[in-house]
Every structure is written in structure tokens, then in C-alpha cells.
Prior knowledge:
The protein contains 12 helices and no strands. The protein is mainly α. Helix 3 packs antiparallel against helix 8, helix 5 runs antiparallel to helix 6 and helix 10 packs antiparallel against helix 11. The mean pLDDT is 85.
Amino acid sequence: MKYLRACVIAFAMYSKIPMPKVEWEKESMEYAMCFFPLIGVVTGGCFFLWGVCASWLTMGKILYAAGLTLLPVSITGGIHMDGFLDTMDALSSWQTRERRLQILKDPHAGAFAVIGGCMYFVAYFGLASELSHEGIRIAALGFILSRCLSGLAVTAFPCAKDSGLVYLFSSGANKKRAARILLWEAVLVMAGLLRLDLFAGGAAVLISLLAFFWYYKMSVDKFGGITGDLAGWFLQVCELLILIPAAAAARF
């Protein structure tokens, strides 16, 4: 039963999918991050189905790409994009570590958040418009891989502060066991990408791992550890980067 509650907690926190109310007990929180990749399964599945429907309906490229751009944000409710925008403001401030952490907590969107968000969606829309059937499958698996790596970071990376969502999930997790489970989940998804397409899938694996290590270095150097906003930033960046080899799959 505790695993079912952990799954519900993960979906309730990181998606807009309606879930029954459960108590956020320590026993349930221990494995909540292990179910985070399941949200990627749902998102990737909807992403793939939209691509299939677009093919059946001979949909135009603009509507096709618009659907692919809107679906992930609609399913998550924009929780990760919120972190991306806050992090863009903080990174672009060139302030001290303490001031950057304060900017992350500021509910107001600055100029760099708006600029970063516009650039992100334009890039995402453009890459999505180039996705072939093969590329759609790579991108769909990318939603799972990004969440495996993000969950792994919560169990392994230092936290920048002793409050917030990441600290809540990190402190409540059975870190060693959760990290092993998430690592195995990530390995399975990577194997799936390589089996799907050795070149484009391999490039997606490589680029996501590079983003993961960049995330660690940036978060420690600039913020002293990870926060919920930085976790959202990584997820969005990782998914955008995976779209590059996914879009290139049709060319090779």
C-alpha cells in the first residue's frame, strides 16, 4: 500500500492528473521519487499518440508542432517550466549565491525569465516540427529519461537549503534504495534508446548525461546545491536537448 501512496504523491505533486488525497507520511515519501519517471511514461505516451494521430489526419506541421509543444506543459501544469523561468532570472543576475537563492524564491517574473521562456518555446516548437515517426519515439523516451536523472539528482546531489520541495522529497527518501531503483530505470531507458536508433538514440543518451553533469556543476558552483527550481530547469533543458538528436533522426 505504501508504494501505491508513493505513486499517488509523485503524480499529485508533479502532474495535473487528478489523484486521490493521501497523507504525505514518511513511509510513503521514501519511494515517491521512484515513481517520478511514470509521469514521463504518461507524457511520452501522449506525445507519441499525438504524433500518430497527426499522421493519420495528415495534420499540417504548425498544428502538429503546436500540439507537441503544449502537451508536456499541459500534463505537468508547468511546474518544471516555472523552475526554468526562475532559474533563468537567477543565473542572469550575476549576483552572489545568497542573492541568487533569493531570486529563485521571488514570485515575480523578471525580464530574463520572459526572454528565456520565449526562446525555449520557439526552439522547442521548431525542433518538434521536424520530428519524424522515429524522432517521436526518441523524444517520448526522453520524457522518462529526464525524470530518471532528475529523481537521481534529488537522491544524490546536495540540497542548497533545508526547505522546499526538493529538500522535502530528498530528506524523506530512502536514498540508497531509491537511487538504485532510479539508476536501473535510467539504464533501461538508455538501452531502449540505443536499441531504437543507435545514432540518434545514442546521441540522446550522451546529451542527457552531459546535461546531468552540467546540472551538478552549475547547481553546486552557483547555488551550493539543488533546489526545486533548479530541478525544473534541468528537466526542461534535458528534454529540449534530447529533441535535437530526435529531430535529426529523420535526416540520417
